Amino acid sequence: LKGVPGAVSSAPIIERQAFYSMIAGEHKQAANLYERLLKTGQITTDINQAKIHFCYGFTLFKLNELTRARSEFDQSLAKLDKLKPSSPAPDGYLDFHPARLQMNIYGYLSQMGSPAERAAALEKRIALIGANRKLLDDARSAQIQNLLRLAELTAKFEPQQAVAKLNEALAGAAEYGTSEGFVTHVVFRTLVNYLSFGILNPHVASTKS
Predict the structure, then answer these.
(1) Exposed (0-12), middle (13-18) or buried (19+): which is 41, by Cβ within 10 Å?
(2) What is the pLDDT of residue 5?
């Protein structure tokens, strides 16, 4: 930004540079630019603040600054709660839907914090996927994979919940496999995880299961 007139206070220029830095994987530079961007006070609408806090949180997540990343993600979620989807284009495409960012954020939050905090984030991500299937190319596959992650995460401290999530994933995988007409990787992975859990946790998994 050096040598660019007004660069320090011009939000569009800073935002563009921050975005390009993030895409290039230059997360330290991107984080510094997003921090500067927010300090300009020129990001005023809820939708823009939601996007900037998300991008800033993502760069901090990549830098393993998880406490600061969580703060930015939480601020983005607070803004997203106020927003509604944009009007669909003639082809039905939604240019903006808050659930897209919310699903991404809960995906990152499920990778930080205590096991209980991660599980709570995954629960919210799974619920969002279920309620917004049209936003994803393969929502059923995504939901099954997240259920498996949740079962794996809760197996040690909440085994009964893990069994319930595995049962839900197994039912979804059976339906998914039937509709696709062949055994997909998702179906195979679900069966392997289910059998592995039963072998490692015989006191929890029932004989019927």
Answers:
(1) exposed
(2) 41
